[in-house]
Amino acid sequence: MTRILYPVREAAEQLGLSISATRNLIATRELRSVKIGHSRRVPAEALHEFVRRLEAEQNGTAGATPPADLSATA
Question: Could you give the 3-state DSSP secondary structure of residue 39?
């Protein structure tokens, strides 16, 4: 079974970041998380979203709209 929630420590390991850096990303809402009781968990999909967003920002595609489908107008 594929894991869907990670404790902050394991999410930090997955991202190759320190625990404090990961907690900061959560606090600034750059990385989504959920709270279960007193525990904070990071959804696996939130890790993927975070990396995709970083890639988009670094490749200059953040906030860009996808190219229009020109075949529809032809």
Answer: strand
Side-chain half-sphere of 38: how many Cα atoms within 13 Å?
A: 0
CB neighbour list of residue 52: distance below 8 Å, 6 or more residues apart: none
Give the global pTM: 0.77
pLDDT at position 62 is 61
The C-alpha atoms of residue 44 and residue 14 are separated, in whole angstroms, by: 10
DSSP E strands in 1-74: the ranges are 5-7, 34-36, 39-43
Beta strands 5-7; 34-36: pairing state: unpaired
Pairing assessment for the beta strands 39-43 and 34-36 based on DSSP bridges = antiparallel
Domain boundaries, the chain: 5-60
Which regions in the chain score pLDDT beneath 50?
74
Beta partners for 53? none
